[in-house]
Amino acid sequence: MSIGSMIAFGFLxxxxxxxxxxxxxxxxxxxxxxxxxxxxxxxxVLYLILGAPFISLVQITVYAGSIMVLFLFVIMLLxxxxxxAGEPLRxxxxxxxxxxxxxxxxxxxxxxxRSELTGMxxxxxxxxxxxxxxxNLLFTKYALPFELTGFVLLVATVGAIxxxxxxxxxxxxxxxxxxxxxx
Length: 183
Description:
79% of the residues lie in helices and 0% in strands. The protein has helices spanning 3-25, 29-49, 53-78, 90-118, 131-139, 143-164, 167-180. α2 runs antiparallel to α3 and α3 (53-78) runs parallel beside α6. The protein is mainly α. The longest helix is centred in the middle third of the chain and has 29 residues, at 90-118. The protein has 2 domains: 1-82, NADH-ubiquinone/plastoquinone oxidoreductase chain 6, subunit NuoJ (Four Helix Bundle (Hemerythrin (Met), subunit A), Up-down Bundle), CATH 1.20.120.1200; 131-183, no CATH class.
């Protein structure tokens, strides 16, 4: 790796960390989503620098494209940018500290035992790393998980739309039903 690519990698790593922290600390849901888009795009550029163009394009297409459009759609639909910022529930801070401590403990355990773990990982054969091989596996061996993921995303979208329906639209649909079925 040349000095220029190492400097670019270091700069992009700082952008990834800074955008992640900014996303977590942002009080506006729209800004948080935009910081997440910046994070996804920067990670895609890091993949490109590391010599993984397919993963880079998948990162852009799937995460920065599709998932973030869905996030922004739901944020706009729910009106989360106008929601008042209230005090979190009392147990949330303690639970967050506990889960953060568990995460740090896992990170320390990984750093201690990583040399033992790397010997257990089998490298992916070259013939299975092409887009054609991944597509073949996705639509043959992993077709059921692929379909289930699509179903879960569809249910989540329909659920978000049903949760955001206002009472006036529900009353309007009930009025229309009463007119169609007089008893």
